[in-house]
Structure formats: C-alpha cells, structure tokens
Specification:
With 224 residues, this protein is mostly helical. The protein contains 8 helices and 5 strands. Helix content is 56%, strand content 10%.
Length: 224
C-alpha cells in the first residue's frame, strides 16, 4: 500500500481518537499504533504529513538583497510558515513557503503581491532621485525599501492571525530537504541625510492595504 495513504489512514484514526466516546477513542488509538508499528511509520512522519508548501519566483537570478529576504521572512512568520530560497542553475531563485493547511499558498500569494508593490515603489523612488552615481541610487533605494518593510510588517501580522505549527514544519523540512542553511544579507547603514528617504518609504507603505475575502472565497485578496 502507498505510504502516503497509510499515513493518511493513521491521521484519520488519530482524529477519531478525539471522540467523546471513550471506547471509540481507545479503538482508534490502538488502530493507529498498530498501523504505525506494522508499516514502520514514526510519529514524526505522521506529524509532518499535514505540512504543505508553495513556491514563488524571487524574480532574481543572484543573491537577493536584504529587503527581499526581509519581506519573505515577514510574510512567513506572520502566517506561521518557514521560507527558504531554492536555487536551480539557469533559473530565477524561488522562495518556498512551508506550513500547515492553506498557509503556504496564502504566504506565497501575499509575498508575490507585496514584492511586486515594493519593487515598483522602490523603482519609482530611485527614478525620482537627483543623484549621479548608480551606487548611491541603489543605497538610497534600499533605505527606502527598508522603511517600507518596517511600516508593512505589522499590517501583515495583523492580517494573518494564524496559529503556530513550528514542530510539524521542522519535521517536514528535515524529511524532505535535510539540512538547510540560513541566508543573511545586511541592511543598508543609514546616514543622517537619509531621514527623508525613510519617510518616503513609510509613506509609500501607507498606500498598501490587505483585504479579507467574503466567506465563500478561497483566496485572500490584496490591493494591487
């Protein structure tokens, strides 16, 4: 029998074990334990079975800047997911969001929309600068993006309002990907003249709004 189907049956038994009928609950637990023993399935494998993942392109074929990584972390943490960067030669990197239930799908969608909004806002800001060097334009654009993220973080967190599922996600990643490495990027250091750039980033973020759908809709909708 397919291993995934066996794990699915074990999960159904464990759900039945929560029955108010003590005899039914005890029988369900025994059946689940017997199947786990028969097919050599661990509690960790059962725990990880409820975890899913969704991916979205970073739009970048090199190491992402700090503000892209920070956005992925803000979204992942708000929806009780973990995010990591998947690299394939010759392709743009993809962010993978791993979590329980629909959280990964919602996370990837939220990241995609906010990433598009931030890239557009940052691009418009950089074009507005009266600066000669490309390096300085990039630096000030990054300062703008960091301020945008600072303002948007609480909005995303309030929008998510999900429960923690860290242990299950950790088990899933260990089983499917093995060891992973943390990826870091440094935020731009601020200079005294950067305050106007920071305020510009915050003002741009104030234009972003997140909307919950009506009950029958399956996906969250975000202002474009």
């Amino acid at each position: 029998m397919d291993r995934d189907k066996i794990i699915d049956k074990i999960c159904k038994c464990l759900r039945l074990s929560e029955s108010c009928n003590p005899n039914e609950a005890a029988a369900a637990i025994r059946q689940a334990r017997n199947m786990m023993k028969k097919y050599d399935i661990s509690e960790q494998q059962v725990l990880a079975s409820g975890v899913k993942e969704a991916s979205v392109s970073s739009g970048i074929d090199y190491k992402p800047p700090f503000w892209v990584l920070a956005l992925s972390n803000i979204v992942a943490q708000s929806f009780d997911c973990r995010a990591f960067l998947s690299r394939k030669e010759g392709q743009n990197h993809h962010f993978r969001f791993i979590g329980v239930g629909h959280s990964p799908e919602i996370s990837s969608y939220t990241f995609e929309v906010l990433h598009r909004r931030l890239r557009r806002a940052r691009k418009d800001f950089v074009w507005s600068l009266n600066v000669e060097t490309k390096k300085e334009k990039t630096r000030r654009g990054d300062v703008f993006a960091q301020a945008w993220l600072f303002r948007i973080a609480q909005l995303v967190s309030d929008f998510a309002n999900t429960q923690r599922a860290k242990q299950a996600i950790d088990e899933y990643i260990q089983q499917n990907y093995g060891e992973t490495a943390d990826l870091y990027a440094k935020p731009k250091e601020l200079d005294n003249p950067d305050y106007e750039d920071i305020l510009s980033g915050m003002r741009a973020a104030n234009e972003v709004d997140l909307h919950r759908p009506v009950a029958e809709q399956k996906r969250y909708s975000l202002a474009k």
